[in-house]
Amino acid sequence: MREASFVERNKEKWTLIENNLSINMQVDPDELASNYIELTNDLAYAQTFYPNSKVRNYLNELAVTAHQKIYKDRKASNNKFKSFINEEIPQAIWSIRRPLFYSLLIFILASAIGFLSAMYDIDFIRLILGDLYVESTIESIKAGDPAAVYGKGSNFGSAIWITINNVRVAFMAFAFGLFLSIGTGYVLFSNGIMLGAFHQMFFQYDVMGKAMSAIWIHGTIEISVIVVAGGCGLAIGNSILFPRSYTRLASFVQTAKIAMKVLVSTIPFFIVAGTLEGFVTRYYQVSIWLSLFIILLSLLAILFFYVINPYRLAKRFQWK
Known about the structure:
The chain has 11 helices and no strands. By secondary structure, the chain is mainly α.
């Protein structure tokens, strides 16, 4: 093909690509990638048949520009993700720190009530946990394996089911904030009552220490992120109840965006908790020190992500 024919056939395409590369607006990454492939194909043809022509130099410059723009957009995308993890989420956590704290207080209070109620009323445990579950657990305690319930089922199946169930509870705690915080308070309170009664059952049979070394392998993260999700729900409910100088709708929308960022941050933790419960908790009797190490490491991870890091950044950037 003569060079003039080659140029005539492709000049409209090259003009369009040049416009895409020169405008400041965001261009679809797929379109940029397609442009780059077209350019490199045409450049290869020009280098073969017109090695010393101006069209070869023109296409080479366009290909270099396209490569740089693709790399720049990819780098910007990566930086945006890092910014979301390292800045936006900690700032969102700091913004709703009070509802998060209130969520923790509600859960601790409910757990204490559940524990004391079960201590003074034997039937309370059965009322909360159900006769079948209680009888099964008592049999496991007598057999010397108080946390045998966590060894049932396959590792992978248990991990998937547990993760889905935990996410469901967290979503309920979050979504029920729409009911002016009452719904979220109910989810937190009922789960706290259940946890307290659960521990009292082990306390009655003098195996609480052994049981806790199993339960809290996954429970440290699981309970913590449920409390975090509850804090997100309380923040949403409070934004409707106490809109301050905003309209209720504006207050709700603004807070919901912040709370969603915090809620998203809990998903990896739920996956870790489900994995620990499905694959690790069942082997709690292998080593008490390994159990304690996992519990401590989990606690430190939660404290760093939801307390220490947001506090450190808030002081550094003077967040309100």
